[in-house]
Amino acid sequence: MSFLLEEALDGLKKVRELQDLRDDSARWSELPRQQQIARMGELEQHERQVRSYLTLANQTVSMLYHLTSEIRGPFLRPEIVDKLAAMLNFNLVQLCGPRCSSLKVRNPESYGWAPKTLLAQLVAIYRHLDSEDGQFALALSKDERCFSRSLFDCACVLMSRHRIQTPEELERFARLGAKLDVVKLHSLKHEPKNTLRDEREAWWTLRAVEVESSAECGNTRQLIRPTGPKRR
């Protein structure tokens, strides 16, 4: 799903750029005829690709939406949950982040582009996977690439403004955002810290590796390092 959506959203941005260029009569008239033809060809190509990617992406998101509404356990398995959380965060950034306006294109329905529906389904998947033990919230907060609490706040504001979710659904999503702060703080407090013993063990391990490497290379002078004062 991540690949399909990423390609579709990147394609939409390119379509928007070419549409802006075409509709700007001053800039468009400055281009030679051959460049105008080339740009129109690029626009048509990106439009075809966007339609194809969005068709598959919408189907995949819809399937995930329905699956997570019925079953949650398989998606919270350790080998899956972190990747799924990162994927959801990435797409939420695209739809609600500072550059979301670049996804506005002319005649979006002609591409199958329904951002409100897509956002509603993505946020619903967040709610479906929210667990009492905080496992999903922890996976979301561990995503260093895209996660931020402000992202959830912006998403809530955007959905409230456009009435994409009901007040009850927005409240549940906002509670998940608040839970992320608690889970993140809890994980930091319980994060194991290196003790003096750990540091000594790490030093001796490194020293053993150096000794073995020196022995294999035949450099016996490095096997024992003098610790006393240098001879004069």
TrEMBL record:
GO cellular component, one term: nucleus
Keyword Transferase attributed: yes
GO biological process, one term: ERAD pathway
Location of this chain's protein in the cell: Nucleus
Lineage of producing organism: Eukaryota, Metazoa, Spiralia, Lophotrochozoa, Platyhelminthes
Pathway: Protein modification; protein ubiquitination
GO molecular function: ubiquitin-ubiquitin ligase activity
Pfam families: Ufd2P_core (PF10408)
InterPro entries per record: Ub_conjug_fac_E4_core, UBE4
Protein name: Ufd2P_core domain-containing protein
Domain Ubiquitin conjugation factor E4 core: 2-180
Lineage: superkingdom: Eukaryota
Keyword Glycoprotein: no
Alphabetical keyword list: Nucleus, Transferase, Ubl conjugation pathway
Organism of derivation: Echinostoma caproni
